[in-house]
């Protein structure tokens, strides 16, 4: 009987993922976050035309999706990637109530340990009152950093990735996050 329940649950998860329309929206200046966005999209079976540069989004485009996976690199001491400043305003104009949002980001825990992947936290803070449900929190215990605006209540509010110092952990981190997202969708 337990096996049957597991199969039914797996079917429901797969069914939800197939029927939920997912967009991966990223801002990338050097290409690292774009690469990660494409890897996450591939793991989530997101169609190529649903992977978008944040500079090209509009409230109408966003309205078509049930799940938004938002990615930004962190620049300087905790700044968003440049295109995200306008992207946040576009998302605020969109109807996000009822949508699910997962956030991911790239950062450098070596050079910017005190603001590691803080862009994740900035996006979260800006959209927190949007009516969306945030999914994909990450335990920070496997990371080496001093501080981050993405750390709220002892958890990262999204998936931080360090392609500069810990690229060997990226695939496993993405795989684990995708499993968590799939269960939440």
Short summary:
This protein has about 180 residues and is an alpha/beta fold. It has a single domain, classed as 3-Layer(aba) Sandwich (Rossmann fold). It has 6 helices and 9 strands.
What's the SSE blueprint?
Layout (H helix, E strand, L loop, with lengths): L1 H18 L2 E6 L4 H12 L7 E3 L5 H5 L3 E9 L3 E2 L2 H11 L6 E7 L11 H10 L5 E3 L15 E2 L2 E2 L2 E3 L8 H15 L1
Parallel strand pairs: 1-2, 1-3, 3-5, 5-6, 5-9
Antiparallel strand pairs: 3-4, 7-8
Report on this model:
The chain is an alpha/beta fold and 185 residues long. It has a single domain (21-184), classed as Flavodoxin domain (Rossmann fold, 3-Layer(aba) Sandwich), CATH 3.40.50.360. Helix content is 38%, strand content 20%. The chain contains six helices and nine strands. Strand 1, helix 2 and strand 2 (51-53) form a beta-alpha-beta unit. The longest helix is centred in the N-terminal third of the chain and has 18 residues, at 2-19. The chain starts with a helix and ends with a helix. Residues 1-17 have low confidence and may be disordered.
Could you say which structural class the secondary elements and strand pairing correspond to?
Answer: alpha/beta
What's the architecture in CATH terms? 3-Layer(aba) Sandwich
Order of helices and strands: HEHEHEEHEHEEEEH
State the CATH superfamily name.
Flavodoxin domain
Distance between the termini: 25 Å
Overall tally of domains: 1
CATH topology: Rossmann fold
Give the assembly state of these chains.
Answer: single chain
Number of helices: 6
Can you tell me the overall shape? globular
Largest sheet: 7 strands, mixed
CATH class categorisation: Alpha Beta
Mean pLDDT metric:
91
Q: Write down how many β-strands occur, each being a DSSP E stretch of 2 or more residues.
A: 9
The share of residues in extended strands comes to 15-25%
As a whole number of angstroms, the C-alpha radius of gyration is 16 Å
């Amino acid at each position: 009987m337990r096996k049957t329940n597991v199969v039914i649950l797996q079917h429901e998860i797969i069914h939800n993922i197939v029927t939920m329309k997912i967009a991966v929206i990223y801002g990338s200046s050097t290409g690292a976050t774009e690469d990660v966005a494409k890897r996450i999209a591939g793991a989530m079976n997101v169609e190529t035309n649903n992977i978008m540069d944040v500079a090209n989004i509009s409230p109408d485009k966003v309205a078509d999706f049930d799940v938004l996976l938002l990615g930004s690199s962190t620049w300087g001491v905790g700044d968003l990637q440049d295109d995200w400043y306008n992207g946040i305003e576009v998302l605020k104009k969109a109807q996000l109530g009822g949508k699910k949002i997962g956030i991911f980001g790239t950062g450098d825990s070596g050079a910017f340990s005190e603001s590691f992947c803080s862009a994740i936290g900035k996006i979260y803070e800006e959209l927190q009152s949007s009516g969306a449900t945030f999914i994909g929190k990450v335990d920070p215990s496997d990371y080496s950093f001093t501080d981050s605006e993405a750390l709220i209540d002892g958890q990262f509010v999204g998936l931080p990735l360090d392609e500069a110092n810990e690229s060997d952990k990226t695939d496993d981190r993405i795989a684990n996050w995708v499993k968590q997202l799939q269960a939440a969708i």
